[in-house]
């Protein structure tokens, strides 16, 4: 009887210890670090649902984004507006930004906060030339985005004029400026400080008011799925471009040294990953053509003696195509100009690919200059012996362990040593070794 009582006592003790923890308030945390894409929208939408199902006090979204696609941003904002729990957006840590499309997410949150040293805004669609290629479509998208920003600001009681200026005039604000203008409600240097300042704040969620109890609350991370993580990495322009370059170079190696196909298979796999990443970004079709042309020039360098001129043309074409790869003229792409392939990556890698191509071409040229060592042509220069007397009418010789038909301009007796000087229609032209010109 003692054992059951002892076990019951331990169980009751465990329940007593766990009871306070079970009553501890919690927040679910989801991070948005990078371009706003469809994958990011899926992740944050799932986080909103998960926060409601877990009964958390709120969903905390930590943002550091240069912006992204307007459609994905609308999906996230819609999820925030319909969230069953308060959504708190914190732009942080110091140095982070809610650029372009990220500004809409700040406006859509129930509580907006920023860390010192961060900024928000500049939500006008990026364009290399300052204008979208279709002014009518660009104006239509601008008006629609401005109305979207105004609606979000009105819904959350924020500065409507600033929200519209962020779209039409690329207005931006630091943390202190945003607090002064009523764009955000809190400036906090850390998540823990933010939770202390949110404690006791009343937030309207739908048709009810919720009082936040966040002081000392447990912050539970909502990790993205493997799929969302992969899409987040592949959606980085630099990663997608790097995978494409490595894939092309491996295909070049496969063309230069055809074998069991390991380099070719790996190259095709990397190109497939690059294609998945580029589908998440606005890509300029002309830039893709330039990259293909660059690849063609590199391949041509392997088979044409151009003394590096084709490789140089490939380097220049590759650099131009890489810089133009991200189509920032897309009016649906609200992102900072930083969303592009970095020059710091393009220049050294383009030079490395060019140098590697020249090295392969030089090696190929050396191989082409070597005398054949196999087949009939490989017999030229070999020494054999006459099986019978030789003359202009021909006879038989044994060379490299094989019996060949041969012609000899000078008479040679049976058993004489001869050297092969040419191969004509599977007949060897030979000369006696003692008559060779030295």
Folded structure, characterized:
There is one protein chain. It is elongated and about 115 Å long. The protein has helices spanning 2-22, 38-54, 70-81, 101-108, 135-156, 160-168, 175-181, 191-198, 226-234, 237-256, 262-279, 285-303, 309-323, 343-369, and strands at residues 26-33, 58-64, 67-69, 87-91, 97-99, 111-114, 119-121, 172-174, 186-187, 202-205, 208-211, 218-221, 333-335, 383-386, 395-399, 402-408, 417-424, 427-432. The strands form 5 sheets. The chain has a 6-stranded parallel sheet, sandwiched between helices. A 5-stranded mixed barrel has the order 14-15-16-18-17. By secondary structure, it is of the alpha/beta class. α2 (38-54) packs parallel to α3 (70-81), α10 packs antiparallel against α11 and α10 (237-256) packs parallel to α12. It has 3 domains: 22-227, 2-enoyl-CoA Hydratase, Chain A, domain 1 (Alpha-Beta Complex); 235-369, no CATH class; 377-435, OB fold (Dihydrolipoamide Acetyltransferase, E2P). The longest helix is centred in the C-terminal third of the chain and has 27 residues, at 343-369. The protein is built from 14 helices and 18 strands.
Sheet having the most strands: 6 strands, parallel
- Cα Rg: 36 Å
Strand content: 15-25%
Identify the overall geometry: elongated
The total of helices stands at 14
Distance, first to last CA: 113 Å
Provide the CATH superfamily of the largest domain: 2-enoyl-CoA Hydratase, Chain A, domain 1
Unreliable segments of 5+ consecutive residues: 1-22, 126-132
Q: Structural class, from helix and strand content?
A: alpha/beta
How many distinct domains? 3
Helix content: 40-55%
Strand line-up in the sheet with most strands? 9-6-4-2-1-12
CATH topology of the largest domain: 2-enoyl-CoA Hydratase, Chain A, domain 1
CATH architecture classification name of the largest domain: Alpha-Beta Complex
The CATH class name of the largest domain reads: Alpha Beta
